[in-house]
Recover the amino acids of this structure.
């Protein structure tokens, strides 16, 4: 057979040898096998749309486009929208757990419903399951929902109703995905890596006085959440706008939920590198240290686990746009952490 190659302005014509043809044939087989292996690996992670198509969709919108479009039906509450998006883009080995605390009618239920209906591999835990036990069912002695939620995003309703006996198990599972259970009927080791997004009510159902005093869970349990969000109530005008948008069904997440689901799954496979300047990194770490110093003995307990959170949050933001952790990403992470904490300094009714 004859092969033709063009280099510069010269065309070379030469005859392929049987040996060379065999090498080309083997190379094509290897290429096909590698492409198939990559495709199978993506499918095992739930990714079956074209990676290039999904990436273009993601890069054109970026992290800001994600949280604005996914939660467009929710008015205000930008800190909550960003925090929930950061959790979704975190990984099961380095999860960003988020706790949302808000009064009835504060959009936390709508946020939960949007995630539940728009994304796959979601484990939804209702109030009755929470009361019975997330790790170990108090009534039956069997394993609860969390041990069966490996590699899933877990949505927990009424997290403030968690039984006291279940809290200690949650400490371990939320921290490292492992725990030991020793009850009257059950002795076992559990390993379950998940991303938790939990929802809770303030102590008296509404915020009165200093909001931080209305956090309904023990500080040690609070410290297991990278982001603890206080929701904003919406006005009557905002509520009517929400009803109108839902009536017309105009939100992009309702029309293209498959793309958003694939976006999240594909982003979790991306490994950003740190490109931020050393000065900005030092300042970022210094501010995180000040937060720990100020809040480690409060109901909003921020402790040494912040060392993990200040890495995981910017990495999640960067993944959303398939980019590295640069100065802009670091700034956005710092603002989210700061704004989520400042909301708890507010005074209620």
């Amino acid at each position: 057979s004859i092969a033709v190659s063009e280099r510069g302005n010269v065309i070379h014509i030469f005859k392929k040898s049987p040996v060379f043809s065999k090498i080309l044939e083997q190379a094509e087989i290897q290429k096909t096998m590698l492409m198939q292996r990559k495709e199978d690996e993506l499918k095992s992670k739930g990714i079956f749309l074209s990676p290039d198509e999904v990436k273009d969709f993601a890069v054109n919108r970026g992290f800001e486009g994600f949280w604005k479009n996914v939660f467009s039906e929710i008015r205000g509450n930008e800190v909550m929208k960003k925090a929930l998006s950061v959790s979704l883009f975190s990984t099961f080995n380095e999860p960003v757990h988020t706790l949302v605390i808000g009064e009835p009618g504060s959009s936390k239920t709508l946020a939960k419903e949007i995630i539940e209906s728009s994304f796959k591999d979601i484990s939804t835990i209702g109030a009755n399951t929470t009361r019975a036990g997330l790790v170990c069912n108090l009534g039956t002695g069997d394993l609860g929902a969390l041990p069966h939620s490996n590699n899933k995003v877990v949505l927990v309703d009424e997290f403030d109703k968690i039984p006291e006996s279940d809290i200690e198990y949650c400490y371990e599972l939320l921290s490292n995905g492992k725990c030991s259970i020793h009850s009257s009927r059950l002795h076992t080791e559990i390993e379950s890596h998940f991303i938790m997004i939990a929802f809770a009510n303030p102590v008296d159902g509404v915020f009165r006085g200093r909001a931080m005093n209305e956090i309904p869970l023990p500080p040690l349990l609070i410290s297991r959440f990278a982001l603890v969000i206080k929701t904003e109530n919406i006005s009557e005008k905002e509520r009517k706008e929400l009803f109108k948008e839902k009536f017309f069904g105009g939100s992009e997440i309702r029309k293209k939920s498959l793309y958003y689901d694939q976006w999240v799954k594909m982003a979790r496979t991306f490994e950003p590198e740190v490109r931020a300047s050393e000065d900005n990194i030092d300042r970022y770490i210094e501010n995180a240290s000040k937060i720990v110093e100020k809040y480690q003995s409060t109901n909003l307990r921020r402790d040494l686990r912040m060392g993990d959170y200040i890495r995981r949050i910017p990495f999640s933001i960067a993944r959303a746009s398939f980019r590295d952790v640069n100065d802009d990403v670091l700034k956005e992470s710092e603002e989210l952490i700061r704004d989520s904490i400042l909301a708890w300094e507010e005074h209620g009714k």
Notes: Residues 2-44 form one domain. The beta strands are 2-7, 10-15, 98-101, 122-125, 153-156, 178-182, 187-191, 195-200, 227-230. Residues 151 and 194 are 5 Å apart (CA to CA). The longest helix spans residues 18-44.
